[in-house]
Amino acid sequence: MKVLIVYAHENPASFNGAMKDLAVEVLTGQGHEVQVSDLYAQGFNPVAGKHDFTELSGAEFYKYQAEQVAAGERGTFAADVRAEMDKLLWADLVIFQFPMWWFHLPAILKGWMDRVLASGFAYGNGQMFDRGKLAGKRAICAITTGGPAAFYPDLAESLKPIMFGILYFTGMQVLPPFGAHAPVQADDAARAGMLAAYRERLEQLAATEPVKYPTMAEMGMG
Amino acid sequence: MKVLIVYAHENPASFNGAMKDLAVEVLTGQGHEVQVSDLYAQGFNPVAGKHDFTELSGAEFYKYQAEQVAAGERGTFAADVRAEMDKLLWADLVIFQFPMWWFHLPAILKGWMDRVLASGFAYGNGQMFDRGKLAGKRAICAITTGGPAAFYPDLAESLKPIMFGILYFTGMQVLPPFGAHAPVQADDAARAGMLAAYRERLEQLAATEPVKYPTMAEMGMG
């Protein structure tokens, strides 16, 4: 497999950093190719705007999503957006490694979604969900939480706005998430246990079944 | 009332811009005081990081949320974060004006939540939901969507991760949201109708009842 890890943590010594390093080690050890988008280290700009394009379409009314469509047709995405798109197109599997903040993505990773999963590139013209433009790829959320596991009795449900509303919307098949709960409050043995559990998940990734979400037809969307 | 409008759109000529301008006009016309945080115009940085603090706490392990707590105690938040906190503390009512992107906040506004609604400032030490540190304030989401109204049969439910999971978590009472659906595809008359409906909502804001969310006690959280 070709695996892209999109990693959103400031501190390389964090538990998120340890999970990212472990994923690189296990997956390369299995013979997969791995690339990492280290958003903090790259200084990734999460703000969507005119700087996403090397030139504008010339439309009378500037609308960001319309410019995304035009940029896809004209090849005028800015280099930082294009680089992430290229890695995404290359990948068979994408691991999103992040701490849950406000039950959602840290802004730096939300902005990756806003800018890279562009209209016309990841979805558009009726192409979404099972017909999304990234169909054939798989994705998994590998996260940490601040609160204990009891706060997240069904992690896939807590992450549904991301797993279903963003990733599956683009056509990606989404694997069950992996969560490490409150690692900062755990002792070394507990943290080692979390990493061992993640290692086991990583070793089985290639054979893991995605979460079953309805098709457009099943949702009555034609 | 003292009203803060946190506004997250790049284009002043957008429908979001028109809604923001209308809110300023109506609320000042009613005698309220209004401040606007224009995140794009301010060049607001949504990325949480060490730059949020004028100095670090000196803790052996750098953890962002712990640094937030320390910065609140020591008065060491960076100027851009402090400025937003001051406006928030000043306000009785906060209007969040934004386009829904990926069923959630644009990254520039998600980062405002990550950085400004800091641990120790907006919540912490068991102070959350009805006991949150921003209790007594009210908030409303005023949004635009790309899709038609039929995609959002219950807008308060679509926005629950923001309304309940973020705003109410800090103690704010959250008013029913206002949504303008697919204004970019509407004709001028339809857009004028949306603005007329928003004007009516704005005129009644002071008397609007918040959405009823459970208290910590009702959620079994002691």
| Element order of chain A: H for helix, E for strand | EHEHHHEHEHHEEH
Q: Compute the average pLDDT of chain A.
A: 97
**Integer count of domains of chain A:** 1
* Gyration radius of chain A, in Å: 18 Å
CATH homologous superfamily placement of chain A = Flavodoxin domain
Short key terms for the protein model shown above:
alpha/beta; globular; 222 residues; Rossmann fold
Give the topology, please:
The structure is a homodimer of 222-residue chains.
Chain A lengths: L1 E6 L7 H15 L3 E6 H4 L21 H11 L4 H12 L2 E7 L7 H10 L21 E8 L9 H4 L1 H8 L5 E2 L3 E4 L6 H16 L19
Parallel strand pairs in A: 1-2, 1-3, 3-4, 4-5, 4-6
Helix pairs in contact in A: 1-8
Describe, in plain words, how this protein is organized in 3D.
The structure is a homodimer of 222-residue chains. The mean pLDDT of chain A is 97. Chain A is α/β, with parallel strands linked by helices. Chain A contains eight helices and six strands. The first copy, chain A, has one domain (2-207): Rossmann fold (3-Layer(aba) Sandwich). In chain A, strands 1, 2, 3, 4, 5 and 6 form a six-stranded parallel β-sheet that branches. The two termini of chain A are 33 Å apart. In chain A, strand 3 (93-99), helix 5 and strand 4 (138-145) form a beta-alpha-beta unit. Chain A is 36% helix and 15% strand.
